[in-house]
Amino acid sequence: MLASAQLTILIFTIVFNIILALVVYKNNPKSATNILFGILSVLLSLWLFTFYPSINRYFSIDFLFFARM
């Protein structure tokens, strides 16, 4: 798959995930389930963002660092 297509899918996934987290949190901000879902969604988006360089060959010098992070 092309790097630009991978980056496009990554950005779409992160944006959609954060929008979903905000919608769920705004639905009932006092619910522990909604708070945890929002936190986990944001953490998942951060993980996806840091995982992308570990699989992209353009970041091969820092591959080990990003894979461990």
Provide a brief overview of the structure.
With 69 residues, the chain is mainly α.
What does this structure look like?
The relative contact order is 0.13. The longest helix is centred in the N-terminal third of the chain and has 25 residues, at 3-27. The chain starts with a helix and ends with a helix. The chain has helices at 3-27, 32-55, 63-68. It is mostly helical and 69 residues long.
Key structural traits:
single chain; mainly alpha; elongated
Number of helices: 3
User: What is the subunit arrangement here?
Assistant: single chain
Find the count of extended strands (DSSP E, 2+ residues). Answer: 0
Helix content: over 70%
Q: Mean pLDDT across all residues, rounded? A: 84
How would a textbook summarize the main sheet? none
Strand content: under 5%
> What letter string, H or E per element, gives the SSE order?
HHH
Structural class: mainly alpha
List the SSEs and their pairings:
Blueprint: H1 3-27, H2 32-55, H3 63-68
